[in-house]
Amino acid sequence: MNPLNILEEIEQEEKVLFQEAFQVNDLESAAEAQRRIAWFEDKKKEIEDITQAQIEPFQKRIEKIKSWGEESKQEFIQKQTYYSNLLEQFMKEQVAEQILNGKKPKKTLSLPYGKIALKKQQPEFLKDEATLLSYAEQSGYVKVEKKTDWASIKKSCIVVGDKLYDQNGEQIPGVTVVEREEKFEVKLDC
Question: Other CB atoms closer than 10 Å to residue 133's CB: what's the count?
Fold first, then answer.
């Protein structure tokens, strides 16, 4: 018999069995339900593999196009930088000339395609964190963050009903225990 025909028969049988009301009421039916879950998982994986195989050639093309775009822009980025540097130099010369003439420097210039300007920036601070921390500790500029050590509290306490109690029998304030249902999971050995 042809193996492909067997697979088709199994798939047809799955479709028929899936449409019937299925009950899990013994070990055999539980094993059958898990077998069906494994089969569905295999089908999902098969579809995911096909999807990835179909996407892969396009992904390579997209990456190639992006790379081409970045390379193609480099010439224009360099030229743009060159002209920006020329405008910056011009603006600095204009400000220096205004200062030489005793005028208050005008640091913005309006041109047909927009404005150019020299703007004052905040200074950059290069810090040696260890030295700075030492100074901050001596001068009182240290932030101390308080945080609950929940793992230690939980480890040393016991749950009674919806309350949490420490080893002395005192209720831990601010904690309400909410019991949750057991979480069901299916583990497949595939």
Answer: 13
Distance CA 108, CA 119 (A): 9
CA distance 53 to 47: 10
Number of residues that make up the chain: 190
Whole-Å CA distances, 9 to 6, 14, 98, 114, 166: 5, 9, 91, 73, 62
The pTM of the whole model exceeds 0.90: no
188 pLDDT above the threshold of 90: no
The answer to whether 106 and 99 have CB atoms below 8 angstroms apart is no
List, for residues 62-82, the tens digit of each pLDDT value: 999 999 999 999 999 999 999
Any alpha helices (H) in the chain, and if so which ranges?
A: 3-19, 27-100, 129-139, 150-156
The radius of gyration of the chain from alpha carbons, rounded to an integer in Å, stands at 36
pLDDT, position 20 = 66
Determine the Cα–Cα distance for residues 188 and 131; give it in Å rounded to an integer.
Answer: 56
